[in-house]
Amino acid sequence: VRIEGQLGTWPLGGGGIPISGFRSSGVNQPVVQVANAITRRSELTNVFILGTNGGTNQHGFYTPPSGISALHLDRVYVESCGGSGFKLEHFTFSTVLNNCHANLCDEHLFDIDAFNSPCMMLLNCYASRVASGKYGYYVRRGEVYFLNCNGVDFGERIFKIGDQAIGVAHCHLEHCNMEAFSQIGVEVDFLS
């Protein structure tokens, strides 16, 4: 399955930005959800996802606990969701997020629970403006590799690694940039 949008420019400047996309039509439900664990090689490219800040389950892009494999997101921009920008749960193996951007969501911008999921990678991703008390990147458990991931333009916390209540996370951060946070750059849970 491959969905590819068009690139364009914003009226305020900046090129190469997705102008095709999905807009939420309701509250408290994901804007885009991939729920078929049997599907292999799902791709979403050059897409803008816009929420309405309507409820904690309104994630921009969501994979539920049934999981997905061989998922590739490239140039996906998520903004103004009531939940997380990107929420990936369980069995998200062989998943790549490349040039993905999340901004102004009410929960964590990238919320990852990569339970039993090797081969998860985020490349050149950006957590922009983070809600109070939330993280730009939150890896609850699993193994995740970050390369050139950046954040934040505004917010208190950037990275949280691990959630001892459910498991252990192992993350590799390479060439990641942490700026403009007011409290925590990287927080590592006791067991991770």
Number of helices: 0
Portion of residues in beta strands equals over 45%
Beginning-to-end CA distance, first to last residue: 35 Å
Shape: globular
Write down the Rg: 15 Å
Counted beta strands = 19
Largest sheet: spatial strand order: 8-10-13-15-16-14-11
Query: Which spans of ≥5 residues are poorly predicted at pLDDT below 50?
Result: none
What's the oligomerization state? Answer: single chain
Indicate the mean pLDDT: 87
Q: What helical percentage do the residues reach?
A: under 10%
Write the element-wise H/E pattern from the N-terminal end onward: EEEEEEEEEEEEEEEEEEE
Largest sheet: 7 strands, parallel, barrel
Determine the structural class based on helices, strands and strand pairing.
Answer: mainly beta
How is this structure best described in words?
- With 192 residues, this protein is an all-beta fold.
- Helices cover 0% and strands 53% of the residues.
- The chain has no helices and 19 strands.
- The chain has a 7-stranded parallel beta barrel. A two-stranded antiparallel ribbon has the order 2-3.
- The protein is globular, with a radius of gyration of 15 Å.
- The mean pLDDT is 87.
